[in-house]
Amino acid sequence: VREFSNLETRQTLKSLFLIHKPYIFFLSEPMTDFFTVHISFWDQLQMKFIAFNTRLPLIPNIWCLCKCNLNISFISCSNQFVVCSILVNHHVIYLAAIYASTSHIIRRQLWLDLTSLQSQYIGAWCFTGDFNCILGAQEKRMCIIPSQFSCTCLDRDLLFDSSSFLWSFLHLVK
Q1: Rounded distance, CA 50 to CA 65, Å?
Q2: One-letter-per-residue 3-state SS of 82-125
Q3: How far apart, in Å, are the Cα atoms of 151 and each of 75, 123, 142?
Q4: Which of 95, 117, 114, 78 is nearest to 25 (CA)?
Q5: In the prediction, which pLDDT does 135 show?
């Protein structure tokens, strides 16, 4: 969901919530301050605020919310991510909502920060969001072929095999 400041977008989001009933929700590029949305909107959706990223002097561009009955803990944030954790079946799962910079130089700090956090918080990690990475020459849109620098993160490439795994709340479905 983008551009959360207009009423039509909020109504669309409300409809999506009623259909899909998400437990955890990450909003990218809301284009408005979190506190301009009245608390009653989130109450109607049975959602509560977890955290947003910091990009001073700009407004946050990642909002994290969850169902009111969930116990999710905030871990860390930067201008490119928010990390929180949840206990599922006696296992801690770390969730990283990412909105990476389009600058590969600034994006390097994201990978350093996430690598550091992963070494401090041992467990299962889920990374979601907009990585703003070019993974291969097939994604080339300009006249320049991308460099070898790709989306290598946390000591391994983020490669996906045609949706081999789907995440369904509390279950990994293959």
Answers
A1: 5
A2: EEEEEEECCEEEEEEEEECCCCHHHHHHHHHHHHHHHHHCCCEE
A3: 23, 21, 19
A4: 95
A5: 59
The residues pairing with 81 across neighbouring beta strands, listed in sequence order, are 98
Q: In this structure, what token pair is assigned to residue 10?
A: 């909020």
Closest-CA residue to 75 (of 96, 60, 55, 54): 96
**Per-residue model confidence (pLDDT) at position 140:** 53
* Whole-angstrom distance, CA of residue 166 vs CA of residue 155: 23
Threshold 0.85, pTM exceeds: no
Residue tagged 């460099």 (tokens): 147
The model's pLDDT over 88-125, given as tens digits with 9 standing for 90+, comes to 888 999 999 999 998 888 999 999 999 999 999 999 99
**In the block, which residue shows the tokens 């905030």?**
74
